[in-house]
Amino acid sequence: MRRRSLFLILLFETAAASGATLNVYPLKIVLSRRDRSSSVSLTNVGNEQATVQVTVRKWRQDIQGTDAFSDTDDIVFFPKIVIIPAGQKQIIRVGMRTIGEDPPVESAYRLFIDELPLSQKVIGVRMTMRLGIPLFIGPTRTTKSGAIDSVSVRNDQMTIVVRNSGNSHAHISSMTIIALDAKRGQVFRTDRRELYVLGASLRAFMVKVPTGLCNATATVRVWVDLGGLQLYKESPRDAVCVARPAS
Fold first, then answer.
1. Do both 177 and 224 map to the same domain?
2. Of the residues 47, 53, 69, 207, which has the fewest C-beta atoms closer than 10 A?
3. SS3 at position 240
4. What are the per-10-residue average pLDDT scores of the chain (247 residues)?
């Protein structure tokens, strides 16, 4: 399980530094008609008790990868607030509220685990933890399909649009971009790793490139590993360069 599937937000507050530290497992949950429930284990490996609040939100992304969250009652979970003594473990049960027809496309959620601040007020800086675990309700049978829709360069920014045509989320484990000159010499290369492309959606990835790249480039090649599906696109300069700097 990749730890990159979990994002961490640190919120600063006025209080003392906490001695509570949580280990969380698993870092992703996938539910379906076949696997209708799961659980999350929270282990307090710190030296102070931790108070934790659990919530679930519907999760959407736009083409730029900006997250949007909304209320939902699709998921049941308990307990919602727990106190975990130092060295102890708490199990959070998670399940689908209703079992309907097999969905054509996966739905995405985040299970948020928020550490609540200590009640006592002490001068200092305190960091409280927020974890957002990806949670998916998907079809029993998943499909894989995708493409690199477009590659474009405007000034010093390259945009690669990846299409996930499959019915479930896919993780981009690698993305390689190479620009070649007219003699097939390499003038630019970058390797990236990203997070999720949700099911049946588009995602645009921005890459900073050297100013004047288009003047030196004849061809751009892009390789993407989309959840094990290998994608490739080769584009000539005239198809890629939206606004080339003047020679």
1. yes
2. 47
3. helix
4. 37 37 93 94 92 96 94 96 95 91 93 82 61 94 96 94 97 96 96 88 95 94 96 97 59
